[in-house]
Amino acid sequence: MMQFQDRYHAGDVLGKLLSTRLGDVTDGIVLGLPRGGVPVAAQVASHLDLPLDVYVARKLGVPGHRELAMGAIATGGVIVLNDAVIRQFEIDTACIDATVEQELIELERREREYRDNRPQPDLTGKDVILVDDGIATGSSMRAAVEATKVSEPNTVIVAVPVAPRSANWELAPLVDQFFVVTTPDPFEAVGWFYRDFTQTSDDEVRQLLAS
Fold first, then answer.
1. Cα 24 to Cα 28: distance, rounded to the nearest angstrom
2. How many domains does the chain have?
3. Containing structural domain, residue 190
4. What is the C-alpha separation between 208 and 138, in angstroms, rounded?
5. Residue 145 covered by a domain
6. What is the full per-residue pLDDT of the chain (211 aa) written as tens digits?
7. What is the pTM of this model?
8. Burial of 15 (0-12, 13-18, 19+ CB in 10 A)
């Protein structure tokens, strides 16, 4: 089983992959999904010599099973729902609305925390590279993809160190290019593929953006 030392190592490996396979991206931007995706994205941005920013997406956890996503929300008010999970757990509209409201508070807090009054980056006509530390259900990344498309970028590219094989046919068709270092089978959780999966802090995100 392939393992990354930490998120910075994963970003270094992913950045090297993109630098050889992506070609020249002169009018692009790398967007890390906070918090864990930002250290990965910082390494990718360094390899590609592109600016780094954040794009906030929040998973909508199933009540009582918070790690399981019934959907996600992202910057710009985009909401993506997983109908199969909602049916399986018989989640009603009131519960979904309450979860969205709760996660929206955290999304807006993170926007203020990380952006420090800076405006959202203008994505129109740019090559947008969305980066996270891995994909499990894909809900947060799908929400980010749909949200960025509203700004009419030139291309939307998703790049992650690890994802289940199902991402190749579930997520890849939604974007212009999809890059993943490893797609292990079986796939249990993103954290399994890191020796150090310590939670990224808000301070670390701010420092990476500042540098």
1. 10
2. 2
3. 7-55+116-210
4. 24
5. yes
6. 789 999 999 999 999 999 999 977 889 999 999 999 999 999 999 999 999 999 988 888 898 887 778 888 888 788 888 898 899 999 999 999 999 999 999 999 988 889 877 888 899 999 999 999 999 888 888 888 988 888 899 999 999 999 999 998 989 999 999 999 999 999 989 999 999 999 999 999 999 999 8
7. 0.88
8. buried
